[in-house]
Amino acid sequence: MTSRRIGSPLAHLLDTADLLVTCGPGGVGKTTTAAALGLAAARAGRRVVVVTIDPARRLADALGIDSEHANEPHLVAGAVTGPGSFSALMLDAEHTFDQLIRERAGDAADSILSNSVYRSIAGSLAGAQEYMAIERLHQLHHSGEYDLVVIDTPPSRHAIDVLEAPDRLVRFLSNPVYRALTLPSRSFAKVTNAASNAFLWTVKRLAGPKIVEDTIEFFRSISGLEDGLRTRAAEMAALLRAEH
């Protein structure tokens, strides 16, 4: 009787939720729990994908997902019989960033992808892993291919970074420095925000003019993507806050 009362809320979530997140410190079984939840929902007839954002390859290795194709959903053969399906993927932030540019940047895609600043930013920018996690989750959630997305997060602090990433991205796109970097003019003298102007001159003096010019060129190249980024980030923020 007790087990039924405890199990009912979880069974209800597995039947109705479209997004589940497992969080906690390292070593407590988040990856195992995420996989078990996903498998249970799939065996109940739902189309499920488990997404691991943790850079450790535990889920990928356990399910036999190779590194080259880890960013694409891998259907786990034999895991489910019946109408449900069980897939898994391991986030590759750089691959997701490249895919975003190819799909959204139009004619500017090639120049952005070959930009030296972009190539250094794509896989190493502070927060890139979290921002691209949100982008990838948005793709999966809105693809129509899955009823449930289960997220296996990194250990505690990094999990919070992922959950806060949509709001941080919206704030970044509204930041005066970002706005200054995407102004049409290439002249620092015409940057209208005094604080941004001072910041850019400081960076130019410390890092050299070529680095600064390449950085400005990169941000101007992607400026046309900001409305879509902002919209998708806001949608994911609302979804992560939703009660099920």
Fold topology:
Elements: H1 2-16, E1 19-22, H2 30-43, E2 47-52, H3 58-63, E3 74-75, E4 85-90, H4 93-104, H5 109-114, H6 116-122, H7 128-142, E5 148-152, H8 156-173, H9 176-181, H10 194-207, H11 209-221, H12 226-241
Parallel strand pairs: 1-5, 2-4, 2-5
Antiparallel strand pairs: 3-4
User: What is the domain total for the residues?
Assistant: 1
Strand percent estimate: 5-15%
CATH class, anyone? Alpha Beta
Helicity, in percent?
55-70%
Strand count, sense and closure of the main sheet? 5 strands, mixed
Report the strand count. Answer: 5
Which architecture name does CATH use?
A: 3-Layer(aba) Sandwich
Task: Give a verbal description of the structure.
The structure is a single chain. The protein has 244 residues and is of the alpha/beta class. The protein has a single domain, classed as Rossmann fold. Helix content is 58%, strand content 9%. It has 12 helices and 5 strands. It has a 5-stranded mixed β-sheet, with helices on both faces. It starts with a helix and ends with a helix.
